[in-house]
Structures are given as structure tokens and as C-alpha cells.
Amino acid sequence: MFKNIFLISTLSGFLMACNGNTTTEPPKENPPASSPVAATSHAASATASNESNPNWQTLMVATEASYPPFQHKDESGQPIGFEVELMKEVAKAAQFNVHIVHTERKMWRETLSAGNFDVWSSSFTISDKDADVADFSDPFLQVQNVVYVLDNEKNAAIKDSSGLKGKKISISKYSKSAPQVVGQLTGSPDLAIPADTFYLALKNVYAGQTDGVFGQDLVLGYYAREHGMKTKSIDIGEKKKSLAFVVKKGNQAVLKKLNEGLAIIKANGVYDALVKKYF
After folding, report:
1. Helix, strand, coil shares of the chain as percentages rounded to 5?
2. Distances (CA, A) of 59 to 13, 88, 94, 254
3. Quick one: which of 84, 133, 150, 204 has the most CB atoms within 10 Å?
4. Residue 249, number of CB atoms within 10 A of its CB
5. Do 30 and 38 form a contact (C-beta atoms < 8 A)?
């Protein structure tokens, strides 16, 4: 009983921002800023940098460090996570410095346009709808929405999405796609059970109030491994989406550096080691 309570309590710091939709803005840790400049100033204390080389160009990189394991903060408030490490390795390989700043994700268009940042690295999926204001790097990871259920005797018959009919599925109210998707999977929109945060959505499953959780595969899988939870992933037929870095439309110089660095670390094994470490 104590173990279950402990596992539930650790969720809030880990999955507060996860909502099953990487293009949806996660819940914020800080009060909203009124301008791009205010946003960067407000977050100035939450920064990370690679080992700087005075002979290399320094790029300003923004990330909203509230979506583990991709980007979040350590105990001292410094950005850490898969994308933070990935960016540092890309920079090292392509020979440029990076200064990574925690900033509200909703400011990404304004801050890129105003030149506050050279790059945004915050779980962005490649999307045609943003092609008028942004260019995307080569993809560095694929993600997919799935349903996770506890791997136990009760759920033994759930082997594919057809086994979700009539089941209650927890969702985060921050996910725009979840109500419709889960309603179709379960047979009724009333079986999509919203929660104020993804933490509370997961808590519903552990408490036996719902049968599963709709979310992103890599985040759910990472949590399950880190905390020894016995779960299984149900493929619901959603297409995989590609994650990439984002630069201002037309900034080919920075885009070239990012793609060059990605190609190098994919060839030398550094990328594979990072993926293995986190996922």
C-alpha cells in the first residue's frame, strides 16, 4: 500500500505536462509573461549550456522544461532531459555553442520572429500548418499516441484496440484530440474520463477508477521502466509523428548546422546511446 502511494506521488513532478499531443501547450510552471522579452527575462535563471568554445558561434535555444523525459528541470532548476542532451551533442558535433533557456512554449512564434532565440527545442512535431513561420530540422525521433493499461489478469483480454470497447480511459483535459479519439475507441465519449492534469489521469488508473490512459508512447514507456510498473501498450492505429528542432523561416545557416550535427551523432553512435539511455 505504501509503495503504491509513493509511486502515485512521484507522478506529479514527472508527467505534469504530458497530454498525449505534442503540439498542445502543456500546463505552465510560471506565470505568463506579457512579451517575448519578458518571457526570456523571467526564465533567465533556468538555463543550460554546453562547454563553450570561444572560437565557435553561440546559439540561443529555447525550451519549456516541463515535459519529462524530453525536457525538464533538475533540483537546481537547470534544464535537463533527452532533448537538452541531444542539443548539446549536436552543437558539439557541428562546432557551435548553445545557451538553453527555459521559456514558455506559447511564445515560440514571437520569440523566433523577434530574434530572441535562434532555435526552439521543445517536443515540436513537424507540421505543415507552421511552414509559413518556421523551418524544421531533420527529424530526430518519432512518437505515437497509444493507450497504456496495467498488465494484469483483469486486462489479459485486451490485446488490441478492439479490446478497449466499453472501457473507461483516462485523458488529460489539455489534449485536444483525446476526447474524440478515446470516444471512438471505447464506443462512447462518456467513457473518456478527463482529469485536470495527466498526473490525475494516471492516478485514476492506479486507483481502479479507469482501465487505461491515453498518452504518448515514449513518455508512458519511460515512466513505466523508471518506476517498475508492469504495463502494456495498446496500438490504437494513430500515425507516428516526427519530432524536430525549429528555426525561423528562412534561417538556412542555423538549419544547416543543426542537420549537420544530427547527421554526425547518428553516424558515430552518440545518438543511439542517448535514445537507449532515455527510451
Report:
1. 40, 25, 35
2. 29, 11, 12, 8
3. 84
4. 14
5. no
Cell numbers at residue 124, please?
515540436
70/195 same-domain check: no
Residue 11, phi-psi category: left (phi > 0), alpha (psi -120 to 50), beta (remainder): alpha
Closest by CA to 270, choosing from 259, 261, 257, is 261
pLDDT digits (tens, 9 = 90+) for 14-58: 444 444 444 444 433 333 333 344 444 444 446 666 667 889 999
Query: Do 213 and 93 sit in the same domain of this protein?
Result: no
Q: What is the pLDDT of residues 68-96, one digit of tens each?
A: 889 999 999 999 999 999 999 999 999 99
H helix runs in the chain, sequence order:
2-15, 36-42, 82-94, 108-114, 178-186, 198-206, 217-227, 252-268, 270-278
Residues with Cβ within 8 Å of 114's Cβ and at least 6 positions away in sequence, in order, are 36, 37
Question: Is there a single domain that holds both residue 196 and residue 121?
Answer: no
pLDDT grade for 220, boundaries at 50, 70 and 90: confident
Distance (Å, rounded) from C-alpha 263 to C-alpha 94? 9
**Which stretch, 50-64, 169-183, 252-266, has highest mean pLDDT?**
252-266
Mutual angle of helices 82-94 and 252-268, in 10-degree steps: 100
Give the CATH number for residue 113: 3.40.190.10
| pLDDT 10s digits, 241-258 | 999 999 999 999 999 999
The domain tally of the chain equals 2
| Residue 267 clears pLDDT 90, i.e. is over it | yes
Q: Which pLDDT score, from 0 to 100, does residue 46 have?
A: 64
Q: State the Cα–Cα distance between residues 98 and 96, nearest whole angstrom.
A: 7
Domain ranges, residue 168: 2-20+145-234
| 196, part of any domain | yes
Q: Which amino acid, one-letter code, is at 19?
A: N
